[in-house]
Design goal:
The structure holds two protein chains of two kinds. Chain A is of the alpha+beta class. Chain A has three helices and ten strands. Classes of the chains: A alpha+beta, B alpha+beta.
């Protein structure tokens, strides 16, 4: 399961997607919307994605992880649109025979996703909006 | 040749559209496109980074463009 969605992410469905008889561990990462940036209250986060390329890059990251760790199954779902505080922006699930690999693979996937997947977010503050990371 | 460029995030606001029809010399490469866009829209120069994607992959600076390519301007990404 590799997807971009405008609907709230069903975390259980992402976990279910990586269930495997050979798995002794399922590691799940949930990236959520935080209520502040450098002590400044955030009201809302707007995510935008270049859908076709984002899905292609997420699949490539899943393939790279599968080449490095004994992954049974991997699922990556990223949300786009307007998200409220506390909502899940991304859910990643990885199943492996033993737990260590599932932690490592999950961390690799979220770290790489943040670097290469074409998704942008705009933080909405009370006094205006800022595209995150756009300027030095 | 005329190329179509998809715009996202802050580049959509800087250029003021989500798609841009843009005139380039025949066989222009990614470097030329970026220099030309940065000259036409100076606010692009202030971004932390600016990449070009061609057909859903990051393009190299020397990559030659064609009118059929699906081109996108990629400002700094920050998913997750």
């Amino acid at each position: 399961m590799i997807a971009i969605t405008e609907e709230p992410i069903n975390t259980q469905a992402v976990i279910d997607a990586v269930q495997a008889d050979g798995a002794g561990a399922i590691n799940v990462f949930i990236g959520t919307v935080r209520n502040q940036t450098q002590a400044k209250p955030v009201i809302q986060l707007d995510f935008e994605a270049y859908d076709s390329m984002a899905v292609k890059k997420m699949q490539e990251i899943a393939d790279q992880a599968t080449a490095r760790w004994p992954i049974q199954k991997v699922a990556i779902v990223h949300r786009k649109g307007a998200l409220q505080i506390g909502e899940a922006a991304v859910v990643i699930a990885v199943s492996t025979p033993h737990r260590k690999a599932s932690f490592e693979a999950c961390e690799f996937i979220i770290d790489t996703l943040k670097q290469v997947v074409p998704i942008w977010k705009k933080e909405k503050f009370e006094d205006g909006d800022v595209w995150v990371a756009a300027h030095p | 040749m005329q190329v179509k460029i998809a715009l996202f995030g802050i580049t959509k606001e800087i250029i003021g559209a989500s798609k841009l029809n843009y005139q380039l010399s025949e066989k222009a490469d990614v470097n030329q496109l970026l220099s030309s866009l940065k000259a036409d829209y100076p606010a692009l120069q202030k971004l932390t980074s600016l990449m070009i994607a061609v057909n859903d992959d990051y393009a190299t600076p020397e990559q030659t463009l064609s009118a059929h390519d699906e081109i996108a301007l990629i400002p700094p990404v920050c998913g997750g």
